[in-house]
Design goal:
Layout: E1 9-20, E2 23-34, E3 38-42, H1 49-56, E4 67-70, E5 73-74, H2 81-87, E6 89-92, H3 104-110, H4 124-137, H5 154-168, E7 175-179, H6 187-202, E8 206-210, H7 217-220, E9 223-228, E10 231-237, H8 243-251, E11 270-278, E12 285-290, E13 294-298, H9 305-312, E14 320-325, E15 328-330, H10 335-340, E16 343-346, H11 350-354, H12 361-366, E17 374-375, E18 378-379, H13 381-394, H14 411-423, E19 429-433, H15 441-456, E20 460-464, H16 468-474, E21 477-482, E22 485-491, H17 497-505, H18 508-515
Parallel strand pairs: 3-8, 3-9, 6-7, 7-8, 13-20, 13-21, 16-19, 19-20
Antiparallel strand pairs: 1-2, 1-4, 4-5, 9-10, 11-12, 11-14, 14-15, 17-18, 21-22
Helix pairs in contact: 4-5, 5-6, 14-15
Amino acid sequence: MTTSDSPRTVLTVRGLSKTFVGQKALDAVNLELRSGEVHALLGQNGCGKSTLIKCLAGFHHPDEGAEMTLDGVPVTLPFEPAQAAAMGLVFVHQDLGLIPNLSITENFEASRRYGTGLFSRIPWSRMRENTIAELVLLGHPDLDPDTPVGRLPIAQQTIVAIARALSSAGEGAKILVLDEPTAALPDSEAELLFKAVRRVMDRGVAVLYVTHKLEELSAFADRATILRDGRNVETVDIADTDRDSLVRLIVGREVEAVTRAHGPQSTGRELMDVRGISGKRLRDVSFKVGAGEIIGIAGMLGSGRSELARILFGAQEPVSGTISVQGKECRFRTPRDAVARKIALIPENRRRDGGVLDMSVGENLTMPSIGRFWHGVRLSKAAERQWVSQQIRDYDVRPASSGRLFRVLSGGNQQKVVIAKWLETNPDIVIFDEPVQGVDIGARAEIFDLISSAAERGAAVLLISSEIEQMIALSHRILTLRRGRIVADESTTGLTAGKVTQSMYFDGERTKETTQ
């Protein structure tokens, strides 16, 4: 994938450490990036990837003793974010930083404060031309620069963010850092992004690519550096390294593959009956789920998957239809109504909807269960502390500190806190919306075990996921949504990811044709 047989070294980092209040997040990390390569940065949540990226961006200042060269020229440390951009280091984070109601051109120019021309007028024509030129370089002359960004699919929004970042480099981009760009993308849209990034590589730019999706690497990355506990483990050539070896390097041990959920498909006890639910996207959705059953819900972004979760949890009222829980028709006006009927939702966006960022781990854990610690008119703080400590141990939340703020935890540990606080309410129905999005390989295995365990305890589980093969492995049935309607309801016995994908994209007749 490199642009020549002997590509130049663009960036060298030696002995980079970073300490926060006595705790070392990075310990003498080394990194080397070459022109025209995709270099993956791998490791479990909390291994130091984000801290390293923030040091490269000038957001964090490394400890004394680090060395860095850019195109062979020593870089004076520390430096500020504006200096990073001027040197040609550009970044696209998971939060793309785009303003949905502004056009592509306006998003490009917002960071430049809309540089004015003659008579202090904004030169819109020139700005549109510059925007088009940047999009053409990424292979997207089809994107209208006047389109509001919020109307674009997520993959195209990511491409806009990359184009904007590249255009911001002072003397031309030398290094593009992509932090989990495909975390929210279904596999079908990821290739669109990869094609754009390959065009960036063709310009000789080095790409540092952070991902937890190991299946992407063989088709997309050249080399990978693995971090564990803030230290270098190894740098490997992807072509010479199989997936199992990568997992061992990342986790430090073997990780078992996801297996089918244990226990019966259903005890025969119906827990939820959804009939004719319609919403903004949903159209006449009906299904039933029983105790001990895991139902996977597949569909492209915009198919209505997350809207279904919101309606079932009382976060959005349906336009029509009914929801019955254990034979009793219910109307959920708020999530409180759904929680009262023993329904729990682990939401797609854990930082926005799953936890309170500026509250502690302990406070987040006890939020739905605080009533259990009241004795008369007094809150038993000792009982609360003991319970929180037990949950931190049971769910392996790291670091094991109840007082640490939720916002500073890694993605995988934030997700463990969100799952723990809801599963410990002993819900009858649990909705998991993209539960392993942006979560490392080790934590993913633990979360999959928690999903299976919830069903084994007798809960009905709805699992929304873009990772079709893993959803098939966990679920008893798959419901496929397309354009707001259920187009397939199939047992996972013998079901393939290809068949589910066809249902997501094609109508019944087309699906039959493509499977013949």
